[in-house]
Amino acid sequence: MLGQSNKSNVFFSCFSLNDLSLEYCTNLNGNGLDFCTDIAYDQRNYYLVGHTSSTNLPITEDAIQKEKLSESSLYVVVLSESFDLRYCSYYGEEEIWKHF
After folding, report:
1. Rounded distance, CA 60 to CA 71, Å?
2. Residue 81 is assigned to a structural domain of this protein
3. Does the global pTM surpass 0.90?
């Protein structure tokens, strides 16, 4: 099929509440399958969590887990209110999220 791929990316976009214009857009753009399962905002940061098979996410120096431990792992991303990457880490193994 045309357009079929073994790759999926997570896109994060913010829109103006006034006129719905696009204010910001980025993606994780890993080399595997990336899925976002939840997003939260607390007036200072945006939090994205999901699972990935990518081995090249933009892991930060202070990451709890810098390498993916199984075929698919959880990830946590924190973006500042101005959309700067504050934190990115793999977290756990595939077996953890299969139970949710």
Report:
1. 21
2. yes
3. no
Structural domains in the chain (count): 1
User: Residue 9 has which token pair?
Assistant: 């990316």
Element (H, E) at 94: helix 94-97
In contact, 34 and 9? CB cutoff 8 Å: yes
- The answer to whether residue 87 is domain-embedded is yes
Q: Can you spell out the DSSP letters for 21-80? A: -EEEEEE---SSBEEEEEEEE-SSEEEEEEEE--S-----TT-SB-S--SSSEEEEEEEE
pLDDT band at 6 (very low <50, low <70, confident <90, very high): low
What is the pLDDT confidence band of residue 22, given thresholds at 50, 70 and 90? very high
